[in-house]
Amino acid sequence: MNAIADHLSEPQLRDLINGSVDEQSAASWEKHLEDCGHCQDALQTMATGEIPIDSLVADVKSLNPPDQSAYWPAIKAIDEEIKTSLSGISTSAADTPAEGTSSVADTDGGLPFVPAKPTGDLEFLEPSDDPAYIGKLHHFQIARVVGRGGMGIVLEAFDTHLQRSVAIKVLNPQYQSNDIARQRFCREGRAAAAIAHEHVVSMYQVAKAQEGEVAYLVMQLIDGDTLENRLRDGQPLPPNEVARIAMQTAAGLSAAHERDMVHRDIKPANILIETKTDRVKLTDFGLARTTDDVKLTETGMVTGTPLYMSPEQTLGETADERSDLFSLGAVMYEMATGVAPFQAPSALGVMQNIMNVTPDAPHKVNAGITRPLSDLIMSLLAKKPADRPESASSVATALASIVNEYGPISPLQVPAVAASEVKKLSGSYRRLERRWVLAAWLAGVVGLLIAVGTFIAMRPDSGDNFPSVVLPDNPGTVWSIDFAPDGKQIAAAVEDGSVRIWNVADQKLLKSFNAHRGIVWTTAYHPDRPMLVTSGDDSLVKLWDTDTFDLIRQWKATSAVRGVAFSPDGTRIVAGDRDGQLHVYDLDRGEEVATTTHEGSILGVDYSADGKLIASVGSDKIVRLFDADTLELRQSMTGHDGPIYNVKFAPVGDKLATVGWNKNVRIWNSETGTQTSELIGSEGDIWGVSFCADGTHLVTGEQMGAARVWEIATGDAVATLRGHTSAVHNVSLDPTAHRIATSSRDGTIRVWDMSGLEP
Amino acid sequence: MTESPITRASLVLRLRDRDDHGAWGDFVDSYGPMLYRFIRSRGLQDSDASDLVQDVMRSVGMAIGRLDYAKEKGGFRAWLFTITRNKLSTYFEKRKRIGPTANDTAQFEMLGQIAGNDELQQQWELEHQRQLIAQAMADLKPTIEPKTWSAFELTAIEGMSAEEAGKQTGMSKGAVYVARSRVTAKLRNAIETQINDES
Fold first, then answer.
1. Is B64 at the interface with chain A, CB within 8 A?
2. Do residues A367 and A491 both lie within one domain?
3. Do A402 and A473 share a structural domain?
4. Last residue of a domain, one of A396, A425, A455
5. Judgement on whether residues A438 and A546 belong to the same structural domain of the protein
6. Which residues in B lie closer than 8 A to residue A58 (C-beta atoms)?
7. Which DSSP helix (H) or strand (E) runs through B120?
8. Looking at chain B from residue 13 to 52, which residues have their Cβ under 8 Å from any Cβ of chain A?
9. How far is it, in rounded angstroms, from Cα A731 to Cα A747?
10. Among B24, B115, B133, whose Cβ lies nearest the Cβ of A60?
């Protein structure tokens, strides 16, 4: 039969659903539906739309609780209770004006609400007038108890002043009366507040420990999971996760150690893993000290879990930085093998094991653990502090290279470690080298030392003094920015899936809308029409109307799209995705007009100024130039020694610039396919690049947070823009004035006034 | 146009009006089963879940008068979600404390600071959509030609094939498909209107 040719069209299906069709056509279309599965599905799909109507409807029979359920009597009881109180109030309110009575009659005539007085160990809370909350503490509405432990209670709360959710840690009532414990709690809290690090939970506030008031700490609320929960089933974690989590924990520790703060209680319950980013956040710095002394004096015993304690801690000696490293080693051991290294049935047994037993090396317990990782863990578990690696930052660095061995990692995952730790590195590495004699990875150690140079800030110059304004508080890394053609607005692509439009003159946020599921990688204004293109981790390329911010069109690539560019004449868009596939889309017809695939993931694409070439760069270190119409490969240029993060053609001439891993900034000739120069002097990896309008200068954005302006002819850096606290991912030049915009992982955009730069 | 089912806004307004006793009943009817299902989905037994529903309802009943629902908290449903989540949290917390392993866990558990997760919110939304669909079906049914409704009910709810449903209703197979899609589209319309009203 000839069903294919006869399929019902979308308008026909729509008419059928709406009933807006004459009887004769309806009858013949229904006839077609009898046997055409394709049209049956199409019809139902159109009717359903995006809501899963079919499955919702199918469930409808079981919506009510079963007849014999306790629900029905419960509902009946509450129903009567409320109805009685309803009528009770009406009559009493009508008969006797409820003046001065104890009833809390609501002024605008609702039901009475008697705030419940919090009880039990929450007695310190005042009642809240909103039943959504269990109580109040100063200006914090307390939503719920998140956890209870030996030291106190953790509450989820809403800060009514700053209008944000926070976590509040309240010292256990049994210690509230102990002045020493209270003072210590607050002192440690204040010390922890000084640590600002991406892998440490931020401390917002320490409540004064006044007489008769509870002491509490207000901190960042983390949406996530504890490492303790991840380890609950006794299974090892994947080796690369072991290394990554440990690396970020070590980095967080190094930030504290830099301030001479010892954590003293590193364990899986204090290592949080943020749901959205998978980022590790360390919590409870120094707090263990609050109560330990008290317990010791009261009971003569160290309480709490000793599973991750260092030998010196079990002896009651002072814990120093290396004691934290031992605990980190114990946590890593458990991640790598699924069991804690010194497990025993009793606390005393655990402590004896910590003192006397050396556990089997992780690589012997779990074959998936590599030798370097196993050796590092065992070196952390050395009984004598002096035998352990010297600093948390050296451990973080070692782990960074181990993580690298599991596959290419984004430098983004490599955390910053404290700069002052650098000097300690050499000593610890000599020792590590002795320990890790295997020649096979001597090379790895050399690699480490290079890596240290890459991501530890050694800032030779202080930066030039160019004024900048800040567009703050974007919800996450700003991966891409673009000046509108009139230079008045900036579009920003943000990690949380939103796109933000800023007005530069008054730094006002004009618009923020959800553009993609997951990260928005790029955004760019159309050269002359009121349009904006965005691309995201959801594989979509979307074209927006910049007057209404309606979606005009979208295309689906095969995977996450990290590079997008308009053709100079504005008729086409090129997009490059993670699978190495290039797509050229026609804006007006909406079609994909050409596509090709190459090795690696694509991280950046651009059109040449004459529109004849498309450049594509990415993880495989090769710069490729394609014919813009046919996508035939024209040039293939090598020289980068790592992934290439971005590419730009000069607005005039044959030049193009590429930037990437390990300080690479290279200028190429697109005609000859050769490298014309390399710009030396960057710090770390380079993420963003842009030419100035006449092609004489280049602007780059760097991992260490600086942006740099280069004179291409001389190869000199003529200006360094410092202000961002984290990597600069993208740079954009104002087409109308001497201004540079930079976007950063720190969640801000800066707009720099470069008019003071000598030409 | 069919008359829209109780919107959240009007229900809240009516609940605040102390003379409108029917509003309370409407609230119990439309939100009770949803709350019950949601709470059961967290692993609670029938009797515990029923107690908790009762608890939530009591809180709502006692506070609705002072709720400035539209202001900053994202509306009535979000408020109800917060109440429910907090009651659940208290419930689990209590159970953990009286459980046989309470001492061990207290020893080994230090203070985490973990907020709720997306999964909870998703389950809540799903139960809400189920509630909306049930409401929408009740509202739509009287406005739809009975034969069309039967064709829809037999195929979409009872899971009958179009052929069987056709035999039972005396319709052609093709007409059954069309009937089902028409009712589905109307339901979808009703739900989308509801969801848009809220956001």
1. yes
2. no
3. no
4. A455
5. no
6. 156-157, 159
7. helix B118-140
8. 15-19, 21, 24-25, 28, 32-33, 36-37, 46-47, 49-51
9. 14
10. B133
Which of the pair, A54 or A594, is modelled with greater confidence? A594
Euclidean distance between CA atoms A115 and A134, whole angstroms: 9
What was the pLDDT predicted at A517? 85
A408 and A536: one domain? Answer: no
Query: Same structural domain for residues A565 and A708?
Result: yes
Using CB atoms within 10 Å of the CB of residue A677, give its burial: 0 to 12 exposed, 13 to 18 middle, 19+ buried: middle
Percent of chain A with pLDDT over 90: 29
Angle at A105 between CA A101 and CA A109, to 5 degrees: 145
For A134-199, give the DSSP string.
Answer: SEEETTEEEEEEEEE-SSEEEEEEEETTTTEEEEEEEE-HHHHT-HHHHHHHHHHHHHHHT---TT
All structural domains of chain B: 1-127 (1.10.1740.10), 144-199 (1.10.10)
Q: Which residues of A touch B86 (CB under 8 A)?
A: 132-134, 143-144
Give the orientation angle of helix A392-405 with respect to helix A239-258, to 10 degrees: 160
What's the rounded Cα separation, in Å, for the pair B125 and B129? Answer: 6
**Which residue type sits at B70?**
A
Q: Please check the confidence at residue A567 and state whether its pLDDT lies above 80.
A: yes
Q: What is the CATH number of the domain that holds A366?
A: 1.10.510.10
With CA atoms as reference, report the closest residue to A492 among A459, A523, A450.
A523
DSSP 8-class letter at A721 = E
pLDDT more than 70, % of chain A:
81
A287 and A411 in a single domain? The answer is: yes
Report the largest interatomic distance among the alpha carbons of chain B, rounded to a whole angstrom: 70
Section A172-178 average pLDDT: 71
**CA separation (Å) from B75 to A16, A140, A158, A244?**
38, 20, 16, 40
pLDDT of residue A557: 92
Q: In the structure encoding, which two tokens stand for residue B127, read together?
A: 């139960």
User: Is there a single domain that holds both residue A262 and residue A389?
Assistant: yes
pLDDT of A64 > 80? The answer is yes
Evaluate whether residue A6 is within a structural domain. Answer: yes
**Can you tell me the mean pLDDT for B187-193?**
86
Neighbouring residues of A312: CB distance < 8 A, sequence distance ≥ 6: A318, A319, A323, A385
Domain boundary among A455, A490, A514: A455
Range of the domain at A46: 1-51
As for the ipTM of the complex, it is 0.79
Give me the CATH number covering residue A511.
2.130.10.10
The reply to whether A267 and A398 lie within a common domain is: yes
Chain A, window 46-105: residues with a beta carbon less than 8 angstroms from a chain B beta carbon: 46-49, 51-54, 56-61, 63-66, 69-71, 73-75, 77-79, 81-83, 85-87, 89-90
| Total number of domains constituting chain A | 3
- Maximum CA extent, chain A: 97
Helix axes A10-18, A37-48, angle to 10 degrees: 60
- Please name the residue that has the structure tokens 């749901």: A275
Contact of A311 with A387, CB cutoff 8 Å: no
CA-to-CA separations, B82 to A746, B52, B152, in angstroms, rounded: 31, 14, 36
Please write the tens of the pLDDT for every residue from A464-522.
456 777 887 777 789 999 999 888 899 999 988 889 999 888 888 888 888 998 889 99
Please give the pLDDT value at position A404: 65
Of A69-83, A108-122, A407-421, A532-546, give the lowest mean pLDDT range.
A407-421
Average of pLDDT values for A71-99?
Answer: 62
Which tens digits make up the pLDDT trace of A103-114?
A: 333 333 333 444
| pLDDT exceeds 90 at position A576 | yes
Q: What is the mean pLDDT of residues A221-236?
A: 87
**A251 is written with which tokens?**
């980095």
How many degrees, rounded to 5, is the angle at CA A384 between CA A380 and CA A390? 50
Residue A482 is among the residues annotated as catalytic for this protein: no
Average pLDDT over residues A553-560: 91
CB A493 within 8 A of CB A522: yes
